[in-house]
Amino acid sequence: MIYFSSKSDLEFMENFQEKVKRLFALKNEIRKKFKPSVHVMGKDYHDAILNMATSSNEGKKLREELAQEIPRAVEIAYKNNVSIDYKSLPAPAIGGAIIPVNIFHAIIEDTSYDGIKESWIEDKINETIGQLKRRIRNDFYKLINPFYWIYSIFVFIIRIPFYLISISGFDVRKVEDHLLSKIFKLLEIILLVYVLLKFGIQKAQILEWLKLFIK
Asked: Strand, helix or coil at 102?
């Protein structure tokens, strides 16, 4: 169920956040000893810091774990409408191509010109966690709300024709975008309201419920 899936994603992101913080702490220790110079600066400096920070046993383990977990973190961010894509621009005096950079991938593979700021990464992780907490609250409300289950059951019944069409190999999206899909959606609402009225639910309560679920 969506609620439990979101709970799992939240637990993962909080654990992911702790690992990123540990990696950044290791990098900060290296920065105290190794400063940028005319020979090592910009992207080369950022790469050197990361390589030195992950040369220890702890650093190697963190890097391996983060490399394995970043794809799921990216997926979770996208799923929760968190923008983690960035366009890195070259210095005007030098010129060059615009480089698309994924902020989470930049944790261990920063391909930008000047380096993705660690504060940006931390902000995006926090934003993802915040979105997940909001989703969990909404999903929990749906989980305990009998109206939502009634609605879901009737939506399933009304959409049986679409499921049957999809089995035949036809692209259901083409049907759902058609006027027919709009009619089915209207029938869903009408049928649901009728059943709720039969259960003795007050009109005011039904209207409030419709505002919450019909968007």
From this structure: strand
The alpha helices in 54-178, defined as continuous H runs, are: 57-79, 118-144, 146-158, 160-167, 172-176
pLDDT in tens, 59-77: 999 999 999 999 999 999 9
Structure tokens at 2: 């969506």
Q: pTM surpassing 0.70?
A: no
Q: Of all helices (H) and strands (E), which one includes residue 99?
A: strand 99-102
DSSP secondary structure code for residue 104 in this structure: T
The closest alpha carbon to 119, from 204, 196, 28, 183, belongs to 28
Long-range contacts of residues 98-105, Cβ cutoff 8 Å, at least 24 apart:
102/74, 104/70, 104/73, 104/74, 104/77, 105/70, 105/74
Q: How far apart are the first and last CA of the chain?
A: 21
Enumerate the β-bridge partners of residue 86: 101
CB 46 within 8 A of CB 64: no
**Using CA atoms, how far apart are residues 147 and 77, in angstroms rounded to an integer?**
29
3-state class (DSSP) for residue 85 = strand
Rounded Cα–Cα distance for residues 65 and 69 (Å): 6
Residue found under tokens 């005319």: 38
The 3-state DSSP class for residue 88 equals strand
The pLDDT score that the predictor gives to residue 38 is 46
